[in-house]
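Example record

The entry below shows one chain as it appears in the dataset: sequence first, then structure tokens.
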Amino acid sequence: MTVFARRARASAGRMHPELSLVSYTLLGHLEERGGCRATDLAAHYALDKSTVSRQVGALERAGLIERRLAPEDHRVQVLHLTEAGEDILAQVTRSRRTAFRERLADWPEEDLVRFAAYLERYNAAPGEIGPGTG
């Protein structure tokens, strides 16, 4: 699992060197949710608010996210991906899929089926795993 996590961090760094794996995880969450508050990110990943604040600041400076006022409460700012943020995530997804295909290309069908079943089982386990953890 440690090697898997190292490879994920290295892959993230190659895609956009200024951003960490945590940043990519946060971008993915924003895409999945259609936007959310920074405090929601901190709560979801059990991260300190200052950690999320630094990550959000870096993502904003990189032009990958933007703040918008919540329609139901103009005192609340909601983080959303920018077009550049969506492009980076799409690029990362394509790159990861290519890497997975290459690494698994010579695996026998029965190994692929077993591997997929193990991944499903792992992902179905209760509890949240925060960004940067195994």
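Notes for this example: The chain is about 65% helix and 10% strand. The first strand starts at residue 65 and ends at 70.
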